[in-house]
Design a protein that fits this description.
The chain is mainly β. The protein has strands at about 1-5, 10, 15-25, 30-40, 45-50, 60, 70-75, 80-85, 90-100, 115, 120-124. The strands form two sheets. Strands 2, 4, 5, 6, 9, 10 and 11 form a seven-stranded mixed β-sheet that branches. The protein has a four-stranded antiparallel β-sheet with strand order 1-3-8-7, with no helix packed on it.
Amino acid sequence: VQLQASGGGLVQAGDSLRLSCVASGGTSSLYAMGWFRQAPGKEREFVAAITESGDGQILYGNSVAGRFTISRDHGKNTVLLQMNRLKPEDTAIYYCATSENYWSGSYAPGYDYWGRGTLVTVSS
């Protein structure tokens, strides 16, 4: 499975961005997709996750709940992350990840495949 994240860029505080992650190759076994981020000098942080199945389970990290929205497009094997009211502390490389056959939620080691990341920079 290959994951390609896109949509990052440089924005000002209060602006919005939408990230996209497209999965390809062996996608029939995918169960959930998630977003994580890592800022310079900081540990990786969970952002959001969503199941691929019909139950539509969703989980958000505390720092983004209420501002970010994760969604999926089954037909295109794509997961989106709509980021609103961005803050300078949202600056990070954002990675998408996917797990096969089970729900990993915020548990990063539970994800089987990772994309290369897309950089989001929020200026004050």
